[in-house]
Design goal:
heterodimer; A: about 550 residues; mainly alpha; Sodium/glucose cotransporter; two-stranded antiparallel ribbon; two-stranded antiparallel sheet; 4 strands; about 0% strand; B: about 80 residues; about 5% strand; elongated; transmembrane (chain B); Sodium symporter small subunit domain-containing protein (chain B); Na_symporter_ssu (chain B)
Chain lengths: ~550, ~80
């Protein structure tokens, strides 16, 4: 059976499963729609969080980026997992104790202000839209290669599926679909990683093969021979300061991502929130410790199978021809010696490899069976769709819950609230589909912006809201606006208007760290210069800090 | 819970968080980024230690830190009678 047939089979099978779960978990009330009735067990929530959080960028792009960046790729590994520690220790238990539906809910109630709520809604929309754009490009890439349809058709298929289970099932549908998606994506990632580890080193466990075989040393040597830096050489592509700033921005950004935070509202109690954070990171670590191993193996293998081969030999590689058609792989025999050579210099380099193809092409490069390749395609789609659905729910609840219910129409009935939520999901799906067909840029890079913006806006006000009783409304609003404006200005300036990075050369990806520091300083200073928060709010903070019981309703107006 | 006990509980919580975050920063920001070059002079298995910390060791440490937090908080909850 051909790769295409296997792929269609697996994709149809997994989509049928998602649709079934969506139908099975359909909901009627707003608690079910927004927080899955708060009855999700910690392990399931951990798996759902892992799927929610591991996006197309983690599954498709990350290993590829690491493969090209070597040591410097560690920013993604440590940034995205390290943020989880901040989330687990500093945010998750307290937000669960708070027990409402969204992050703007917390911000609005803690800072007793609809202006603060609105700023938080705008920031949540900003972060989620930036992020969802990246997911849709991921869906497009997978479909265009594996189903040989054009990207627009692929995106529309994906959108119909997501719309079905999120409109019908809300958070409950999304949660259980994400549990299924986690299982599919992790199997899809580990099979090729383990197969290629076995092939190259004789050890099927990628983490051990990576550490105890001589593959890393061999790759270092191959890189040096071709004129590259050693693979393990730190700061070959980025300065030490930039690596530090990007890592911190990704850590803090992860902790501030609204679609991840909201997952901790779905578990039964504070204790479950603590454990589910641990399960989530354990599940994530399965992929995140395999990815750097896969990155190393893939780079070694790719160089070996393409570099210095004759044109005839390369043309016989079926996978190389197929990827060439997507324009993500390109050959050009510049010196007309009949061989393709890989060099660090763009003037003489004859092989151009887009980082996005590393994971997806690995099984084919390593000549694994067609069904493995199909599983990887299904896994890539699971990763992209699970994150997209989580984001769509945040977008819809930001508008339907935070703006419509909490600000515009506080007397709305259950039915109206769920109805508006469903309409907003539909609207968000259409918007995401548009981004998928007209992608704004490179997957992981776009996602990096979302992290920078999350770091600069949410993180400080949530942390201070819990750990500093003196932080008040005026401080929080000023801080969020200052952090967000500065970070957007710097990113847009550097990325789109040709501004040179002026803060010690820190790149657009890392500037969220400075945005966060600005936010902290502005919030603390403005809070001290203005009156303290009302007593009821101070008591609410006191109460957040104790894991027992529910919050008294009068504390949260 | 009376005020003194709840303040003691909160202080113990903060101390635990602080200690775990020190380890968090040590393995990631300090060992894996600021001190990566000197650590790379040492080999772990067949790879340089600093590189291994950045790509494997720090992630494994993070997982352990969160579970230590959850278990220690359970103990704290029991000690202060928040949960039976």
């Amino acid at each position: 059976m051909s790769v295409e047939l296997w792929t269609i089979g697996f994709v149809a099978l997994t989509f049928a499963l998602y649709l079934y779960i969506g139908w099975w978990s359909r909901v009627r009330d707003s608690s079910g729609f927004y927080v899955a009735g708060q009855g999700v067990p910690p392990i399931a929530n951990g798996a759902a969080t892992a799927a929610d959080w591991m996006s197309a960028a983690s599954f498709i792009s990350m290993a590829g980026l690491i493969s090209f960046l070597g040591y410097d790729g560690s920013i993604y590994l440590m940034g995205w997992t390290g943020g989880y520690v901040l989330l687990a220790l500093l945010l998750a238990p307290y937000l669960r104790k708070f027990g409402k539906y969204t992050v703007p809910d917390f911000v609005g109630d803690r800072y007793y202000s609809n202006v603060a709520r609105l700023v938080a809604v705008v920031a949540a929309l900003f972060v989620s839209l930036t992020y969802v754009a990246g997911q849709m490009r991921g869906v497009g890439i997978v479909f265009s290669r594996f189903l040989q349809v054009d990207i627009a058709t692929g995106v529309i298929i994906g959108m119909v599926i997501v719309a079905f289970f999120s409109v019908l099932g809300g958070m409950k549908g999304i949660t259980w679909t994400q549990v299924a998606q986690y299982c599919i994506l992790i199997v899809a990632f580990l099979i090729p990683a383990s197969a290629i580890a076995l092939l190259l080193t004789g050890n099927p466990i990628p983490q051990l093969a990576f550490t105890f075989s001589d593959i890393v040393a061999n790759l270092n040597q191959v890189q040096l021979d071709l004129g590259f830096q050693e693979y393990t050489q730190p700061f070959a592509n980025k300065t030490q300061l930039d690596v530090l700033f990007i890592t911190i921005a990704l850590m803090v950004g992860t902790a501030g991502l609204p679609h991840v935070i909201v997952r901790f509202y779905t578990v039964p109690d504070v204790r479950a929130a603590r454990y589910s954070a641990g399960w989530a990171l354990l599940f994530i670590a399965l992929l995140y410790t395999s990815a750097p191993a896969l990155a190393t193996f893939a780079r070694y293998n790719l160089i070996n199978s393409l570099h210095n081969q004759t044109i005839g030999e390369v043309r016989q590689l079926d996978w190389a021809n197929k990827w060439e058609r997507t324009k993500l792989l390109a050959f050009d025999d510049k010196n007309n010696n009949g061989r393709f050579e890989l060099t660090p210099d763009t003037a003489t380099n004859e092989i151009t490899i887009d980082p996005d193809i590393i994971v997806l092409s690995t099984p084919e490069v390593a000549r694994l069976a067609p069904w493995v390749i199909a599983i990887v395609a299904a896994g890539g789609l699971a990763a992209a769709l699970s994150t997209a659905s989580g984001l769509l729910l945040v977008i819809s609840s930001s508008v339907a819950h935070d703006i419509y219910y909490r600000i515009l129409k506080p007397d709305a009935t259950e039915k109206q609230r769920v109805f508006v939520g469903r309409i907003m999901v539909g609207f968000a799906v259409a918007l995401a589909g548009y981004f998928g067909i007209n992608p704004p840029g490179f997957v992981a890079q776009v996602v990096a912006f979302a992290f920078g913006l999350a770091a600069a806006s949410f993180f400080p006000v949530i942390i201070l809201g819990i750990f500093d009783k003196r932080t008040n409304r005026e401080g929080a609003i000023a801080g969020m606006i200052a952090g967000l404006l500065f970070t957007i200005f710097y990113i847009v300036g550097v990325k789109f208007s040709g501004m040179t990075p002026w803060f010690f050369g820190v790149s657009a990806e890392g500037i969220g760290t400075l945005g966060m520091i600005i936010n902290f300083i502005v919030t603390l200073v403005v809070s001290r210069l203005t009156p303290p928060p009302p007593l009821a709010v101070q008591e609410m903070v006191e109460d957040l800090r104790s894991p027992s019981g529910e919050l008294p309703p009068e504390a949260v107006h | 819970m009376d005020k003194d006990r709840s303040q003691a509980y909160w202080r113990a919580n903060i101390a635990l968080i602080r200690n775990l975050l020190i380890v968090w920063a040590l393995v990631s920001l300090i060992f894996s980024i600021l001190l990566v070059e000197p650590l790379n002079a040492i080999q772990l298995g067949r790879v340089p230690l600093g590189f291994w910390m950045a790509q494997q060791g720090s992630i494994l440490t993070f997982v352990v830190l969160i579970f230590i937090y959850a278990v220690q908080m359970d103990r704290l909850d029991r000690k202060y009678g928040i949960r039976k």
